[in-house]
Write a structure and sequence with these properties.
Elements: H1 8-16, H2 24-37, H3 41-53, H4 57-72, H5 74-81, E1 85-89, E2 92-97, H6 100-108, H7 111-114, E3 123-125
Antiparallel strand pairs: 1-2, 1-3
Length: about 130
Amino acid sequence: MSELKMTTQQQLEAIEAQWEEEDPRILEAAREFLKDDLSTDEENEKLKKAYLHRGREKEYEYESKQEYLFYKHLPSLIKNYSGLYVWFEDGEVKDYDQDEVTLCGRVVRSDAVREREIRAIYVNKVPELN
């Protein structure tokens, strides 16, 4: 059984098709961010192998899901959190800060993370709207 592989351009188009934003400045900022941030199939495969090699399949699945949702919500994130680091989970921002280290420290110490099976978190910087 062969697996369907998407080029980076196809990934970009599939994500953009889900955006409902009309502001051209926000759309351009989101597109530019995706062009730089999307991984190739080869890069994704290497990352997946590294996670699986260390027995961290659940963390890989978590990160992949959160990354996809982050991209899907990118225009609204740019509107509301431009230039900030966000802890993003299941389609919503759980916390944010100007400083990535401060945010990550606060998040990993939170009860929400400490009390769950997978302690992985997804933090990314929202692109700035110029």
